[in-house]
Amino acid sequence: MLPGWDVAWDEARRAADPTGAWQPVRISSEHRGAYHALGPGGVAWVELTGKAYNEARDKRALPTVGDWVLIERWDQALAANGAGVIRAVLPRRSFLVRKAAGEATAPQPLAANVDVGLVLTSANSDLSPARLDRYVGLLRDGGIEPVLLLSKADLVTDPAPGLAALASVSHGRVLAVSSTRGEGLDELRAMSGPGRTAVLLGSSGVGKSTLLNALIGSHQKTRDLRADERGRHTTTHRELFVAPDGGLWIDTPGMRELAQWIDEGDEDEQAFDDITELAAGCKFRDCRHREEPGCAVRDHVDAARLASFRKLADERAAGVVKQTEAQRIVAAKKARKKAAPPAED
Ligand SMILES: Nc1nc2c(ncn2[C@@H]2O[C@H](COP(=O)(O)OP(=O)(O)OP(=O)(O)O)[C@@H](O)[C@H]2O)c(=O)[nH]1
Ligand SMILES: [Mg+2]
Ligand SMILES: [Zn+2]
């Protein structure tokens, strides 16, 4: 079995599947309604039935990266004979979900069954207490231990002030790391390590994928600073990797705004970083800076600027609806294809 599987998971499996007919595997990435899963024998495609997909109340009811799921026809899926069918999602031990912003959006699950959330801030750039505080809040809400990392520690002469600033945001652990010098890697492996799952979080370019490569020797794409790619996301989707020592690590694309739930390669809200910072002072976490009471943004941002921010938010909201509908249609089509009687068995 995959590292991380234990007696308690085995019990959960028996409760969901008393005859033991289905194979437990772990979701490693998500691709518009279909999934890659890691299990005995390697990686294979798995997917939900159209019925299960359509019955899901919102995205929280669907499998996400890190979920343990039970699969029918795993062996065929491994042999690349179509996709395995997800029959059950085992109850989650922890669950990282990004909050919704605005009425047309819905909560977005980021990862399930994670033990440690590593939030990176690069030592050579300004730290944003508001943003870090949101990460810490989301992690704690999801039952995940937050650890704040000062990344690229080799770029400063003294990491102590940076670490002190991080410590003032979270009462949890803080650690300086340098992927180029290999500093802090042993401490990180000790925090997560065999059988445990860690998720790497933080803005684009802070060095999440580079750190993962240093930790586990995987081949995640990292940004080439020689190319002019400022603001571009290098990692484009969330993915679970298994380290040689049996530690499990989830890489994520940088997120600029945690309350927004379109991630994966979105950059225009960078232009509104000032609003994002001020928004930390709003009474409501999901404040849209319109009519909400206790808004800290409305009175401090120039009207024209606020108008363009709202326009972007509206476009987003419309885009969100389109995107989920498109995903639904793709999944339904696939499910119909699968529902056709198979040639054999
Ligand atoms: N000096 C130094 N540079 C680093 C370190 N870690 C990463 N970098 C550089 O920072 C840049 C961004 O690193 P990535 O690992 O691609 O950043 P990321 O957080 O994965 O970014 P996204 O995938 O876009 O979210 C690359 O050019 C790295 O070489 C480090 O420890 N020290
Ligand atoms: Mg990356
Ligand atoms: Zn507000």
Please describe the structure with a list of short key phrases separated by commas or semicolons.
345 residues, alpha/beta, OB fold (Dihydrolipoamide Acetyltransferase, E2P), Rossmann fold, Ribonucleotide Reductase Protein R1, domain 1, 3 domains, 6-stranded mixed β-sheet, 9 helices, 21% strand, globular, binds guanosine-5'-triphosphate, binds magnesium ion, binds zinc ion
Explain what you see.
It is built from nine helices and 13 strands. It is α/β, with parallel strands linked by helices. The chain folds into three domains: 7-91, Beta Barrel (OB fold (Dihydrolipoamide Acetyltransferase, E2P)), CATH 2.40.50; 95-251, Rossmann fold, CATH 3.40.50.300; 269-310, Orthogonal Bundle (Ribonucleotide Reductase Protein R1, domain 1). The strands form three sheets. The chain has a six-stranded mixed beta sheet with strand order 10-9-8-11-13-12, sandwiched between helices. Strands 1-2-3-5-4 form a five-stranded mixed beta barrel. The longest helix has 37 residues, at 303-339. The chain is globular, with a radius of gyration of 21 Å.
